[in-house]
């Protein structure tokens, strides 16, 4: 890039991450839809989850039914497996699901549609022919199969299931708290991601039983309530915005994550893996 | 693979991870050298770190000098940044380093030597032309540059430094507790990895100050002591063994991590990223 200064063309330094955030125009941000936002309220604070109905619409709808019938209120964080996931739901699998469905089809990927606002990453990925972002979410694609799917990055939220693929309902949910377990991609339904408060989940004491389940009921962390943000009085809603992943600001953001111009770096790297590009989230001004 | 059963050739199912561990002969395990093992003792328990002098010999030697002069005893876990690192050392950077050096050369990679016991992974990697394992450690390689380096996988332990590359001493150490920040590879000296007790570090409350430092001294977690395992009475040493990464058992282990034959998986995946292959560690029988 060249900038004219005092009549001379000079190379300009690419902007830093902080500069990109500061310079991003209002049009490069979008409000996170309160209708697709969950507040998971724990004794230690609030975890905010953005749902993505584009990839698992039936799962997302069922989760919202469960939430609106207060299914999760009084249930528990029941599992914390180091470098893997935290999971919540009913440890005894006894609480009735109300009007929600008890099993859903395997919504693990979707047909790639023309006109999707896909922002590709240029670098190779171990698990997929192509990776990038759609509507704020990290995704992977297989052009030969014509499929796109959400990826298991840190903070991704998914739906626990038993061995048959149609046994997930949304009554058991998990969030990734370790190195991206990308081998789960296309094997289970992802429904969203934590956009605030993941650090409340990632510090949960690890469970001693198999798969990190708590071996004593007293170790479980109670869930005060889960709400759809749209159902909370407007004055109590968090007004969160996410950088549009089809914006020029996000393109610059990817650039800053790929090429480190900070003098601390002796190797600029020049590459980035999809799970190492967090999508910026801020409180609306 | 074909096995003859009742006179007929039949396909055999590849072994599961549990079967590989159970079947691995004694020769496929090596004792983790007590001379290259650190015990980091915290109020909540012991973190065991295996040092790798092959990649950063001067850093490892300096750390052992610091440990043997009891530098870390009474210092603190001072930083916990979510999805990144936990760091320990002297928050005030005042404690004298004794006979240890105050700055070391940038040992961030090494020349690839013929005859290294390198076990390659077959799958593409975002950050390096080649990845695999050497002597129990996850590594990456660039054949064109003829260099090999340790990778920033979950649990990797490295040496904090200031902006000039020769300012690391080992007095400030960090462990990775999030998605592998592989962009740090070749930018800072890695010296080893946590082989037991990483879950004591990963649950540390996240710090509220910039970069996850604790903003109040009272939040810091005191270090009881750090010892080289070889300096501890034999009866008090943990006898840990690690699967040899140049063994047939480890080749099978990689196979099990790449191809999921568990009926839960609807996609066998067929690929694995280097940081998603933990090297098995066990207590010696």
Q: How are the strands of the largest sheet of chain A arranged? A: 16-6-7-14-13-15-5-4-17
- Globally, the shape of chain A reads globular
Structural class of chain A: alpha+beta
The tally of beta strands of chain A, per DSSP, is 19
Quaternary organisation: homodimer
**What about the largest sheet of chain A?**
9 strands, antiparallel
Q: How many helices of chain A does DSSP assign?
A: 4
Strand content of chain A: 25-35%
Give the distance, in angstroms, between the N- and C-terminal Cα atoms of chain A.
31 Å
Radius of gyration of chain A, whole Å:
20 Å
Largest interface: A-B, 43 and 43 residues
Spans of at least 5 consecutive residues with low confidence of chain A: 1-5
Query: How would you state the average pLDDT of chain A, rounded?
Result: 95
Helix content of chain A: 10-25%
The helix/strand order of chain A is: EEHEEEHEEEEEEEEEEHEEEHE
Descriptive keywords:
285 residues, homodimer, 4 helices, five-stranded antiparallel beta sheet, nine-stranded antiparallel beta sheet
């Amino acid at each position: 890039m060249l900038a004219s200064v005092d009549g001379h063309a000079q190379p300009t330094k690419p902007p830093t991450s902080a500069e990109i955030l500061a310079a991003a125009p209002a049009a490069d941000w979008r409000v996170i839809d309160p209708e697709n936002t969950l507040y998971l309220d724990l004794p230690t604070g609030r975890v905010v989850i953005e749902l993505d109905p584009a990839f698992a619409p039936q799962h997302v709808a069922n989760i919202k039914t469960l939430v609106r019938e207060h299914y999760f209120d009084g249930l528990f964080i029941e599992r914390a497996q180091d470098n893997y996931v935290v999971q919540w739901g009913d440890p005894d699998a006894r609480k009735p699901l109300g009007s929600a469905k008890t099993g859903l089809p395997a919504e693990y990927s979707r047909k790639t549609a023309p006109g999707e606002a896909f922002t590709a990453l240029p670098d190779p990925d171990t698990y997929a022919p192509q990776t990038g972002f759609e509507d704020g979410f990290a995704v992977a694609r297989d052009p030969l199969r014509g499929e796109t799917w959400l990826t298991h990055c840190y903070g991704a939220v998914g739906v626990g299931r038993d061995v048959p693929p149609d046994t997930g309902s949304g009554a058991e949910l998990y969030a990734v708290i370790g190195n991206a377990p990308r081998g789960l991609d296309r094997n289970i339904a992802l429904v969203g991601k934590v956009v605030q408060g993941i650090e409340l989940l990632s510090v949960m004491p690890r469970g001693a039983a198999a798969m990190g389940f708590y071996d004593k009921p007293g170790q479980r962390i109670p869930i005060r309530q889960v709400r759809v943000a749209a159902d909370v009085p407007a004055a109590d809603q968090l007004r969160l915005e996410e950088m549009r992943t089809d914006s020029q600001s996000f393109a610059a953001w990817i650039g800053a994550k790929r090429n480190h111009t900070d003098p601390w770096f002796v190797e600029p790297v020049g590459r980035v893996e999809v799970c190492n590009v967090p999508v910026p989230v801020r409180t609306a001004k």
